[in-house]
Specification:
The structure holds two protein chains of two kinds. Chain A is an alpha/beta fold. Chain A has eleven helices and 13 strands. Chain A is globular and about 60 Å long. Chain B is mainly α. In chain B, helix 4 packs antiparallel against helix 7 and helix 8 packs across helix 9. The chains are: A alpha/beta, B mainly alpha.
Amino acid sequence: MTAVLEAHGFGKRYRRRNWALRGVDLTVPEGSITALVGPNGSGKSTLIRAWIGFERPTEGRLSTGGVDPGKDRDAAVAKVGYVPQSPSLYGNLTIAEHITLATTLRDGFDAALAAQYIARLSIPLTAVAAELSGGEQAQVGLALALGTRARILLLDEPLASLDPLARREFLHVLVEAVRSEGHTALLSSHVITDIEQACDRLIVLGKGHTLLDLSISEALAHHRVVEGPPSFVPADALVGSFPSAGGDSLNLIRVPAIQPLTADAPPVGRSATLEEVVIGHMAAGRLRRAAVPVEAAA
Amino acid sequence: MLTATRLTYRINRFEVHAILVATALSVVVSAIVLTWIRNSGYADCIESTEVPSVACLELQDVGRWATRIASMSSQLAGFFPFLAGLLLGAPLIARELDKGTARLAWSLGPSRRRWYVQRVLPILVVVTVTAMIIGVVSEQLIALFAPDVDLANSFIGFHTRGVLLATGALLIASIAVAVGSVIGRPVPTLLLALILGGLTLVAIAEVDKRLLVSESVRLTGENTYQNDLPMNEARFELPDGRLVTWDELVAEDPTIMEREFNYPYVEFGIPRQRYREIETREALAQAVLSFAFLGAGAVVVGRRRPG
């Protein structure tokens, strides 16, 4: 499968010392909806912004649809539709004027398509952006990104401030657009339930590096949860330990490491939810970071 | 480009409306004042050095107000480049970076240069045209108080009338745009552009002054004894042909103050016929500097993060 987004040894350092990301190697296959998950400060936004050319790599290289955004930002932007966490619309312009604005900025912008997405959500084109709710503004941001007809969509936590209904509507439009047009989408989010419904691939970033990069079905199939203290499971099978909502100690384990999927013996523990897979890897990432000596981290 | 221009005016409508209203108000008030003074005959009363006539006395109450307004408008014209340049230039890029709309625009449009031109050009046209209008109005007001002077050949109101107001406003706006591109916050941009703009205009004036000193010539005929001439300097011509200032003369001959002398008095300065040439030269310098600042702004926009 062709990769449309690639990172090879990518690193980004701010102000000489703080590495937001380092040594990131990952690819996003064409036609997928990939979730990019990680705790705050794990570098999700930095990676997405670097793919659109808003950040320059400190080391390594990136590819956006075959273009190096560090060398040819304009070409990279032309290949991407971008939705930031806050859509930052022009407060005193109407939605119709935003669409017109997009046509003046980008040759080939599909104003009719953008207007069509907005109309489907019953957002009036004559509405002034400042009067829209956060959910509606996010939808307008998505419609503008889709209007670019770019093959790659980069969505940087667009669901963060939306209520559940707005999130669901947003994802519905996104999934339908991506599936019908054969686009590729990378969606950064904290909301695991939404990811499970919309995405087919999962990348977990932890404090500057990749912790997990699998399809969602693989992620679910190859992890299980065992209750009890971490000593209950072999160290080589343990991914990470974390508390349940009720306070019990849970351990995420890798299935192939403890027993083959084809084994006749009953599986150890219970099936992991996607949220537990993500949290288990985040916990592992935190431990790994804590184990790194201060000098090495600096 | 017309659509982009319309949208740029919509995005910056508060500032554009404020400047257009201020300009229109200035034009209307000045026109009313000028028309009244000219048509009522009060213009002759202003010029007259004799005892006021009965007609002049009857017009005096309104006339004083009219001349006061005309005089104040003329003086305020010198501040218009700062007003228009800062109000329109400072928030233009800085606010887009601050509010995040630049990020939206830069993700929609592959060319930041196109976005920059679409934003900057229409606003600079407003700045320059309104300042030019104020420059013309100011010229009319100055003509009111100096009816016998040919303003095309006079340094009266130098820097506060005509094309220099327009290029001055363009320069201030360009500085504000460049500063805003770097800082990305409207209020600090406004303050820094005010300081930088003021310093730049002072620096230009200083360079101009030195240039004019080096270009001063011996004035003769109608050019002598005119207080509107820049770099007007008086010297005494000694019998040996040397030209000295009064201080130099006293230093050379301390007894000079105790006796009579008849050294010829010679004036140096810039002949008023050079007004248009010097005005054009300074306007060109301001325009070139403006383009330099705009170019710097474009480079910053092309390289910086969207905020």
